Amino acid sequence: MQAALNKLGYPCYNGFTLISNPRDAEMWVEALDAKFFNKGTPFTRRDWDQILGDASSVGDVPAIAFSEDLIDAYPEAKFILVKRDIEEWYRSFDNAIIKNCFSPVVRTLMRLDPYLMSRLGAVGIRWTEGWFAGGVHSREEMREKARLFYHQHYEMVEKEVAPEQLLKLRLEDGWGPLCEFLGEPVPEEPFPRVNESDALQELMAMIIRRAVVNTIISYSTYFVPLAALCLAAYLRIG
Length: 238
What we know:
Strand order of the largest sheet: 1-2
Low-confidence stretches: none
Number of strands: 4
Distance between the termini: 67 Å
Helix content: 55-70%
Structural class: mainly alpha
Order of helices and strands: HEHHHEHEHHHHEHH
Largest sheet: 2 strands, parallel
Mean pLDDT: 85
Number of helices: 11
């Protein structure tokens, strides 16, 4: 969906955008704290304009936690509700989101890498503990609640958005309904079908490599002098 919107000239802010711009994490943490943990002031349209930057569309995690807020902040906006087979969606969500949220490697790097993984991890933890009612603290708990939240999200959007501003789209419908809804010409190229789960896994692998490098650099300021002192002491003793 994001690839289609980008092609039509509506740059889309999504989870990939956040991962590519980890400095945005601070504002997402502020927004999550304000909405779910009574810390700070709920975001206004001005705040959303700042965090979304030049994007003219938004979707995916973590923005899904603010669907009602975005509907209120942008009452003139059009909304696209992508309808998917729930089991197909669940497999993608499990592979792309749940496994990464509770990965021991990711959790360890969140504590060790202050520049990248800790920032992204702060968003992920607040999202899972805030948006999922009562919070989720394990893969099993998140898996149990995922389908329920899928249905609740769809019901909320259908209830809150005026019918003339809402498009219920299946990706297999292609360009036609989407372009008609947005008033855009139909591109000549086929409708993009990106395997976002695989793409996220590839991106996460790159992020983990960067986080490992950041961790090594961060801790080298402690280990290198210590190693030098040990070597000096050894040479004196010898």
